[in-house]
Amino acid sequence: MPIVNRISALHEEVTAWRRDLHEHPELQFDVHRTAGIVADKLKEFGCDEVVTGIGRTGVVGLIKGARSGSGKVIGLRADMDALPLEEISGKPYASKTSGRMHACGHDGHTAMLLGAAKYLAETRNFDGTVAVIFQPAEEGGGGGREMVNDGMMDRFGIQEVYGMHNTPGLPVGAFAIRPGPLLAAADRIRIEVEGKGGHAAQPHNAIDTILVASQIVANVQSIVSRNVDPLDNAVVSICAFNAGFTDNVIPQTATLLGTVRTLTPEVRDRVEARLQAIVEGTAALFGATARLHYYRDYPITRNTPEYVGFAGDAAAAVVGDAAVERNTTPIMAGEDFSFMLEARPGAFIFIGQGDTPACHHPAYDFNDEILPIGMSYWAKLVESRLAT
Fold first, then answer.
1. C-alpha dihedral (40, 125, 175, 4), degrees to nearest 10
2. Could you give the residue ranges of the DSSP H alpha helices within the chain?
3. Rounded to 5 degrees, what are φ and ψ at 386?
4. What's CA 31's distance to the chain center, in Å?
5. Are strands 160-168 and 346-354 parallel, antiparallel or unpaired?
6. Mind listing the domains of the chain with CATH numbers?
7. pTM here?
């Protein structure tokens, strides 16, 4: 391309959209303001069809090319929801809602896809149809799963689907992608421990759940180091420990919360089985009981190899081949675009955010400098996959 003049001309306007979204973050499926803005803009752009309420609060816009003989339909997806964090960025457009902020750049993802939709609706220099997909509840709510379960792929005839995420630490003007597993399966665990409450001065008459739960925390760390092949990848993290309410009572119960991240089904199964054995066995050693609740949440984000080539070529057309890493290292974060990739072939790509605070950090802010790069990638992908 690289960046066409029309997309460059949209930069200031799209930046204003992004900063407005940043000021008004919404969580999970409760993205009514954001979805309303998206739907209104898609109608204003002249999209051929705009449908709301997909997967509860998702929005899909259809843009038909100047030609439609190919019959092809491709989907481009952005996420809309924010995170339950208190923002400390100090930006003039910082969140106006206490305890909520766009700490993962979904405001930027939404703005980039809106900008691309405006360009595509104006030019229509392609043969087929583009479905621009705006998804709620990526942050733990499974909005991608809900949109797929709502029949989105069949309803709009989507044949292949693409997603994009900003990446702090990756230079501005760079992209990264890989075939196969790119992001991990993200599972949730809850461990409920029950012992025997008692007086803190008489521990011999109690079964100390804090001691039991602490041993479980330590023992589950052996799973990755001793039960998973060193050449495979896995993460087991206990992130919350809740027990007791005062300084002189041994509590009756304790609860642990955490996450498991894996890149293959085999390792996923092994980690779950070992967790079960360690949780129950450790508790039994102390005369307590413990129950593991294992919730299989987001699947592995697995790119279709052929479509990685299409995405990588589109990125290279914008920033040059040297700036596109085509076999990047997988990341153990989760992403519910995985549900869309289970339903259709496609690819998920990382776009460089530059040297900024990490995603999910309270000082994070999306880098507006990359907006035209992302918009140009979307435009090039459409015009190459739906070439006239």
1. -90
2. 5-9, 11-23, 32-45, 106-123, 143-149, 152-155, 209-220, 222-227, 265-285, 305-319, 338-343, 371-385
3. -120, 50
4. 16
5. parallel
6. 5-182+300-385 (3.40.630.10), 185-298 (3.30.70.360)
7. 0.94
283-328 tens-digit pLDDT? 999 999 999 999 999 999 999 999 999 999 999 999 999 999 999 9
pLDDT digits (tens, 9 = 90+) for 191-243: 999 999 999 999 999 999 999 999 999 999 999 999 999 999 999 999 999 99
| Straight-line distance from the first to the last Cα atom of the chain, in angstroms, rounded to the nearest whole number | 16
**Residue 159, both tokens:** 């044949």
Buried-exposed string 343-362: b where 16+ CB fall within 10 A, e elsewhere: bbebbbbbbbbbebeebebe
pLDDT band at 1 (very low <50, low <70, confident <90, very high): low
Rounded Cα distance between 109 and 233, Å, is 28
Cα-based distances in Å from 56 to 111, 134, 380: 21, 12, 30
pLDDT at 12 over 80: yes
